[in-house]
Amino acid sequence: MVTADCLQITREVGFDHLLTSGKPYTTSCPLPFQADSVKTARDVTRSTLRGWGLPELGDDAALVVSELVTNAVRYAMYARGRREITLLLMRVVPHVLLAVADPSDDVPRPKEPDFVSENGRGLYIVETYSQCWGWDPLAHGGKAVWALFRTEP
After folding, report:
1. Which of 21, 27, 29, 87 is deepest in the core (most CB within 10 A)?
2. Residue 32: is the preceding peptide bond cis (ω within 30°)?
């Protein structure tokens, strides 16, 4: 299955449905709107990947999830109403899809990385460590920012 096929599957099923259903090889974890959600997201990611027999993806995936959740916490504070963040991991052989849904409608935009600055490198890191990344709007408002990892050479 090529990358486009994997992403087409998620779009046909819909992130909204994936975030609320308990499908095999799918883990969904609601996260509170607070900074320590980043650690929880890393732990859930590593644990899920170990359970799927993919511990070798743990470090890279945890780094990417850290960046996605940090962005969600940072930018969701400006969204009206809900303060829900949800982590989704989905195994679609030969890929793992990581997604973080947040209530903000703001489009994620990569910045030119400033390697001296403390921030602004998040999406650069996501792009560097994943096969590809993007975002999809959610039906009830907000978005899911996702990153795709290939599990087989």
Report:
1. 87
2. no
Q: What is the pTM of this model?
A: 0.83
pLDDT, position 58: 95
- Give every CB contact of residue 64 below 8 A, 6+ residues apart in sequence: 98, 125, 126, 129, 130, 147, 149
Q: Is 14 left (phi over 0), alpha (psi -120 to 50) or beta?
A: left
Q: Determine the Cα–Cα distance for residues 9 and 15; give it in Å rounded to an integer.
A: 10
**CA 70: distance to chain centroid?**
11
Token pair in block for residue 151? 């599990």
As a whole number of angstroms, the distance between CA 103 and CA 53 comes to 32
Query: pLDDT tens digits for 110-151?
Result: 766 665 555 556 788 888 899 988 888 888 888 999 999 988
Angle 64-65-68 from CA coordinates, rounded to 5°: 90
Task: Give me the sign of the Cα torsion angle 93, 99, 105, 108.
Answer: negative
